[in-house]
Write a structure and sequence with these properties.
With 470 residues, the protein is α/β, with parallel strands linked by helices. It has two domains: 346 residues, TIM Barrel; 94 residues, uronate isomerase, domain 2, chain A (Orthogonal Bundle). It contains 20 helices and ten strands. The strands form three sheets. It has a five-stranded parallel beta sheet with strand order 4-5-6-9-10, with helices on one face. A three-stranded parallel beta sheet has the order 1-2-3. β2, α9 and β3 form a beta-alpha-beta unit.
């Protein structure tokens, strides 16, 4: 029987151990998609307790707390930070097989040097040890980023954001990590939303001019893309949760925009048509800038209307959608390719049933650059061991694994950098197994280089970043 969470955790062969310890373990981190904010990094946020740091914004944890029967007052409610922590400690022993069990203990080990499993019997001790370190200022936001050897991280930002804190960080000589914005224009595509006109007002303030026509709207978006690019943006990001391709003329888009400005109801077809037009317009801009375009496809959001009313969005009431989008994606990418304006693109699916569809879709549009179209890493409900293994196996089966741009945190928690270690261990275990089984030659130097590339070098090359310049 092996001990829990040793240095060889998840590494089932001697080859896997060598690949991890000699090649993967000490590679820097390039976190090209996360939900940290530039403000908390610029201000080097300190945390009042392990609860604020660990549970404060982590809806992964909130979901399992609810599933374990914990009352909402201990999750997003008014109970004390210690009471909330103790409920988490009560829940942890029940999470057999859940990646949160592994992530929790990796975070305790790597950040707090605590190797005692969290449980009701150890909760008081761990509460005191963690908070003592936090009170000494040893684990501020920047200190954690430095501890994990993060070289670049990309936040997720609305087009109306001033990017004030990004510019502040760029000018800060005391912090040598690149913190880059990511252009996330979901609200620009969501013309059917009740909040669209309110967001349009924010966009007007951002560009300093009125937006009264469709072409004003496009020009405003272009101005924001230009601004983001000046501040160092290298990626866009789009959440696509329903149909996103329907043929449309420019004149029809003008009509749709005018109807919305006049508060007339739009049909579902018109909403999809407008979404299509904006995606095509922005995709061409991204290609011109040399950005990568990310599509996160397949969420079913805000499902529990009652609880969303009580505690708000992004609080753990989303799930996997099952809408069909292969034709939409094929037509959208083909339309951009016909104009020679298809940017580098990373495709993520939330429904695991779409793995092979998305991986083979990526293969349809490869051109000029190794892995130009990426089948992205296992996302959200899939970033557990089985999901990561499935994504890697699928990509290897129908694509070129060595060009993969690897892992990201996709997290609001500063402690989530252990997910890169988790991913690297799983990757090395798969490659080690293939070698041990005689499915690939024991060329460890070559395979080790592939590991290093997937861990760090591929994404750096993909985004064409010069890390010698802040």
């Amino acid at each position: 029987m092996q001990k829990f969470l040793t240095e060889d955790f998840l590494l089932e062969s001697e080859t896997a151990k060598r690949l991890y310890h000699e090649y993967a373990k000490d590679m820097p981190i390039f976190d090209y998609h996360c939900h940290l904010t530039a403000e908390e990094i610029a201000k080097d946020r300190n945390f009042s307790s392990i609860t604020e740091m660990w549970l404060g914004e982590d809806h992964y944890k909130w979901r399992v707390l609810r599933s374990n029967g914990v009352a909402e007052s201990y999750i997003t409610g008014q109970k004390s930070e210690k009471e909330k922590f103790l409920k988490w400690a009560e829940t942890i022993p029940h999470l057999l097989g859940n990646p949160l069990y592994h992530w929790t203990h990796l975070e305790l080990q790597r950040c707090f040097a605590i190797d005692v499993p969290l449980s009701p019997s150890t909760a008081e001790q761990i509460w005191e040890q963690c908070n003592e370190q936090l009170q000494k200022g040893q684990l501020s936001t920047r200190a954690v980023i430095d501890k994990f050897n993060v070289k670049v991280l990309c936040t997720t930002d609305d087009p109306t954001d001033t990017l004030y804190y990004h510019e502040q960080l760029k000018a800060d000589p005391s912090f040598d990590v690149k913190v880059l914005p990511t252009f996330r224009p979901d609200k620009a595509l969501d013309i059917g939303s009740a909040h669209f006109t309110d967001w349009l007002g924010k966009l007007e303030k951002s560009v300093g001019q009125a937006i009264t026509t469709y072409h004003d709207f496009l020009n405003a978006l272009k101005q924001r893309v230009d601004f983001f690019d000046q501040v160092g943006c290298r990626l866009s990001d789009h959440g696509l949760d329903s149909s996103f391709y329907e043929e449309v003329s420019e004149q029809t888009c003008v009509s749709i925009f005018n109807k919305r400005i006049e508060n007339q109801a739009l049909t579902e077809q018109e909403i999809v048509q407008f979404r299509t037009a904006i995606l095509l317009f922005l995709g061409k801009l991204y290609a011109e800038k040399g950005w990568a375009m990310q599509f996160h496809i397949g969420g079913l959001r805000h499902v529990n209307e009652y609880m969303v009313e009580q505690v708000g969005i992004n609080s753990g009431f989303d799930s996997i959608n099952d809408f069909r989008y292969a034709n939409d994606l094929a037509k959208l990418m083909s339309k951009l390719e016909l104009d020679n304006k298809l940017p580098k693109t990373i495709l993520y699916n939330l429904n695991p049933n779409d793995n092979y569809m998305l991986a083979t879709m990526a293969g349809n549009f490869q051109k000029d650059f190794p892995g130009k179209i990426q089948f992205g890493t296992a996302w959200w409900f899939n970033d557990h061991r089985e999901g990561i293994e499935s994504q890697i196996q699928t990509l290897a089966n129908v694509g070129v694994l060595s060009t993969f741009v690897g892992m990201l945190t996709d997290s609001r928690s500063i402690l989530s950098y252990t997910r890169h270690e988790y991913f690297r261990r799983i990757l090395c275990n798969i490659l080690g197994r293939w070698i041990e089984n005689g499915e690939y030659p024991a060329e460890l130097k070559w395979v080790g280089q592939i590991v290093e590339n997937i861990a760090y070098h591929n994404i750096k090359k993909y985004l064409d970043l010069d890390l010698d310049e802040k």
